[in-house]
């Protein structure tokens, strides 16, 4: 299969075949991501334009480029650049496309990456736009599930816990998993339940899902528990937040009745959703998940730049 | 159509009769056509006219004026059942129903304040039409869905 997608903007643009292709490529590149070097991006310059700070994501992309032998240019906040003087994103893209072979863009406005992809002659990779898409996060989540679970993605029961209403990376993950027919469980307080458009989408597609506000109800059956952070500011009443925050915390005690091969994921950073004691159990995969961002981003870069393996 | 006959508005010589406007949308139609107190031509506005299959409808008659395609497209967004009658020399020379376009470019402002299209970037707003009646638009940049109070988002 030829990878025809030049830009990486939204997970929703992808078919299951395309996701599989990226994950396959990531698997090939994983040994290099761990400790190695390739020349796939030799003589390529990749621009990382971070209009809002996200050190973790930027370092992950930076590592991916360097492991593939490319070099990076860019900035990591817009304050010190001409953008602070009112330059449009449009102009920035038109200038940088003549310097770089690909542009990794993080921008506070939703739809920024889509706009950039329409005007750029070089590939745009969306590294997050506002509350919007963050496709490489979804891809690395999918890669983690594929690598760390003993069954195929379609045979799993994935429980997603926390802020399901505003967390759009969670929405992208649900979309991607739905392409595989994965069984889904959603655990959230009433205020932060999965939005109705996503619920309707799953119903239309005949995807099996279960909703609850009680984390204990999903522990036993889950193959994956995907924890997310609940933000305090989502709750008008701080005492309501405290009630909820406490009930969505994984502790070592809770692991007594879970499946032997159940894995716990978290996009990080965590606040107190996972007790530190859990880190040393075989279930904890969140640091591994974070590492998998590197081979997945290497895969994406090599595919959009048509770098032959 | 007896209701048409009952209207106390005399037939126009030349111009456009915009009929079957969703009740309550006549003033928004005037806005789309740029009709203000300064407009010189004769304009008749009928609101809440009893209508067989619509219950109630609005009608706007504009003399000496034919609509351009963009105006018709915009009317379709706020009132998808509207029919346009072009009158020349008392005769209806053309009659058609407005058609909702598949995409809407540069006509509507995105309802998401954080959308890239609501900035000073040199781009036009762009929506995919997800449903025609009622009209539901999805921003092709940020995916925000606009479905109520479309008239308030007209550019
Ligand atoms: Zn928008």
What features would you describe in this structure?
The complex is a heterodimer of chains A (309) and B (155). By secondary structure, chain A is an alpha/beta fold. Chain A has helices at residues 16-35, 55-67, 89-96, 112-119, 135-148, 168-178, 196-204, 216-219, 238-247, 286-304; strands spanning 45-50, 71-75, 102-107, 124-129, 157-161, 183-187, 209-212, 224-227, 263-265. Chain A has a five-stranded parallel beta sheet with strand order 7-6-5-8-9. A four-stranded parallel beta sheet of chain A has the order 2-1-3-4, with helices on both faces. In chain A, strand 5, helix 6 and strand 6 (183-187) form a beta-alpha-beta unit. In chain A, helix 1 (16-35) packs across helix 5. The mean pLDDT of chain A is 93. Chain B has 155 residues and is mostly beta strands. Chain B has three helices and nine strands. Chain B has helices at residues 2-6, 26-32, 69-78, and strands at 15-22, 43-51, 55-63, 83-88, 91-97, 103-105, 126-132, 135-139, 145-146. The model of chain B has no long low-confidence stretch (mean pLDDT 90). The interface between A and B is medium-sized, with 17 and 17 residues. The site of zinc ion (ZN) has 8 residues of chain B, from loops.
Q: Helix amount of chain B, in percent?
A: 10-25%
Structural class of chain B: mainly beta
The averaged pLDDT of chain A comes out at 93
Low-confidence stretches of chain A: none
Number of helices of chain A: 10
Biggest sheet, spatial arrangement of strands of chain A: 7-6-5-8-9
Low-confidence stretches of chain B: none
Q: Count up the helices of chain B.
A: 3
Using a beta-carbon cutoff below 8 angstroms, give the protein chain pair with the largest interface and the number of residues from each chain: A-B, 17 and 17 residues
How many angstroms separate the termini of chain A? Answer: 14 Å
First-last Cα distance of chain B: 36 Å
Q: How would you write the strand order of the largest sheet of chain B? A: 2-3-1-4-5
Bound molecules: zinc ion
InterPro entries (chain B): Asp_carbamoyltransf_reg_N, Asp_carbamoylTrfase_reg, Asp_carbamoyltrfase_reg_C, Asp_carbatrfase_reg_C_sf, Asp_carbatrfase_reg_N_sf
Family (chain B): Belongs to the PyrI family.
Cofactor (chain B): Zn(2+)
Keywords (chain B): Metal-binding, Pyrimidine biosynthesis, Zinc
């Amino acid at each position: 299969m030829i990878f025809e997608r030049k830009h990486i903007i939204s997970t929703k643009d992808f078919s299951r075949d395309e996701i599989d292709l990226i994950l396959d490529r990531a698997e090939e590149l994983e040994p290099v991501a761990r400790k190695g070097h390739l020349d796939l991006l030799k003589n390529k310059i990749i621009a990382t334009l971070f209009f809002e700070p996200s050190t973790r994501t930027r370092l992950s992309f930076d590592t991916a480029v360097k492991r593939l032998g490319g070099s990076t240019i860019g900035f990591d906040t817009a304050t010190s650049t001409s953008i602070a003087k009112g330059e449009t994103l449009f102009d920035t893209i038109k200038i940088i496309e003549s310097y770089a072979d690909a542009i990794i863009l993080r921008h506070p406005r939703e739809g920024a990456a889509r706009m950039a992809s329409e005007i750029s002659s070089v590939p745009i990779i969306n590294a997050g736009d506002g509350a919007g898409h963050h496709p490489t996060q979804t891809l690395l989540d999918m890669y983690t599930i594929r690598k760390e679970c003993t069954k195929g993605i379609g045979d799993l029961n994935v429980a997603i816990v926390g802020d399901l209403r505003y967390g759009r990376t969670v929405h992208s993950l649900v979309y991607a998993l739905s392409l595989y027919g994965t069984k889904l469980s959603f655990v959230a307080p009433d205020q932060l339940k999965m939005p109705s458009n996503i619920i309707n989408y799953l119903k239309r597609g005949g995807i099996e899902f279960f909703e609850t506000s009680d984390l204990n109800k999903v522990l036993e059956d889950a193959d994956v528990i995907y924890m997310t952070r609940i933000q305090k500011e989502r709750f008008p009443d701080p005492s309501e937040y405290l009630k909820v925050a406490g009930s969505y915390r994984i502790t070592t005690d809770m692991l007594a009745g879970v499946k032997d091969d159940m894995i716990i994921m978290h996009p990080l950073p965590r606040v107190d959703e996972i007790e530190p004691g859990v880190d040393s159990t075989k279930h904890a995969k969140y640091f591994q998940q974070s590492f998998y961002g590197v081979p997945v981003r290497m895969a994406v870069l090599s595919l959009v730049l048509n770098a032959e393996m | 159509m007896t209701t048409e006959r009952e209207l106390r508005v005399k037939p126009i010589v030349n111009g456009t009769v915009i009929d079957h406007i969703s009740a309550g949308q006549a003033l928004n139609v005037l806005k789309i056509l740029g009709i203000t107190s300064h407009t010189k031509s004769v304009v008749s506005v009928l609101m809440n006219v009893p209508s067989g299959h619509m219950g109630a409808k609005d009608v706007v008659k504009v003399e000496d004026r034919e609509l351009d395609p963009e105006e018709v497209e915009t009317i379709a967004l706020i009132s998808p059942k509207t029919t346009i009658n072009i009158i020349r020399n008392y005769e209806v020379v053309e009659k058609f129903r407005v058609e909702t376009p598949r995409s809407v470019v540069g006509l509507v402002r995105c309802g998401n304040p954080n959308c890239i299209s609501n900035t000073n970037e040199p781009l036009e707003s762009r929506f995919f039409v997800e449903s025609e009646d009622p009209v539901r638009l999805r921003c092709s940049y940020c995916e925000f869905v606009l479905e109520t109070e479309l008239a308030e988002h007209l550019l």
